[in-house]
Amino acid sequence: MCDVTIAAVVLLVHALKKGIFVMFNNTFDQLVVFGSACTDIVRTNTMRLPEGQLLEWWKQISGDAARLYEKNYVAFSALNQLLVYWRESCHETAEVAGGSGLRVAVGAASALRSHHNPLPVVFYGLVGDDDAAKIIRAKMAEFSVTDHAETTRLISTARSLVVNVAEGFEKRTITFVYQGANEMLETIQLAKHQTITAKTLFYVNTSQPAATIVRAIEIAKAKGAFVVLGCSKPEKLAPYMADLLPKVDGLIMNSDELTRLANIMNIPMDDWRHATAQLARTQGQRFVIVTHGKFGLSAHDPHNTHNPYHAEPAMTVPHVVSSIGAGDRAAGEFLAALAEGKDFVAALRAMVRGGAKQCLLHGELAPLPRDEDVWGSGQDTPPMAGGQGSAWHRPVRTLS
Fold this sequence. Notes:
Structural class: alpha/beta
CATH architecture: 3-Layer(aba) Sandwich
Strand content: 15-25%
Largest sheet: 9 strands, mixed
Strand order of the largest sheet: 8-6-1-12-13-14-15-16-17
Distance between the termini: 78 Å
Helix content: 25-40%
Radius of gyration: 22 Å
CATH class: Alpha Beta
Order of helices and strands: HEEEHEHEHEEHEEEEHEHEHEHHEEEHHH
Number of helices: 13
């Protein structure tokens, strides 16, 4: 019996050294993501299309020669015509899994698996019965995301064309999005999901119809879940915001989205700290995280009465390949850290790290490189792009 015990101890020590068996003090027992999924058609090299050429294509398709926005919502036929032009000019393309909700889920699952943490990540969405859906499901299987995406034969899976353009010295990314099945996502299956409890970390973004988002939050909150809203389209939720905010435990958005949400809530945007603090304490208490791109992020945690304000500067990377998906990857890293029981500041730092390393990829959903492969093994802390607190001191842009 003694020999058996010794053998068991030896095996346990070996497993711990290999990272096979690790004890976790997870705050939550699962992360549930309710959101959008699509496929992105991307160029696999770093060449950029002249913006004038893209505008000419768009004029031929739509008859509209107006300026293109960073994100343009188009019909299925228009997207297909753009793809014809695109593939004629560029043969190095790939169709990869994407969509804000899926990116967050895969990003969180990737972070957890890199820590050998088996905490389940569950994705709810809607896809068509087509090849694009197969790409999405394969990506979830690759990262061990529990697939609760429903299939519809009424409409195709959402798709987007991602075009890197240049006009003179100005470079930017323009995306054409066909919403597809994301516009039909409902909460029927979510309501039936019996395992959502007070130990569930629940994330929802705003790519779905407004009524669906509201209902999803209501269902999750009724089951006692901790709810985080990725508020990328605050205007969509404007009629519901007064009733919705008390049900939300956390908000994640960028600085432009904060400005628009503050306008909806009649919050003065004269100062970042004041605006985030007021939003965090309006009709309840919730953390508010605001990303500022190269300036890093700022956050307000009303539960920290000693020092509720925090700013985390951006981390520099050797070269930026693409910023596509960086915000969603950052959110996934933050949620994974939160689920694991890390404190708020540590979770924010994981968020900045994840967003920076995603910029080294071509926008695809893939495991992130290790810190030592990006910044070298001799550095305890990766280099920062700006001084501590730089995000709070950005000039405030108000709506005209």
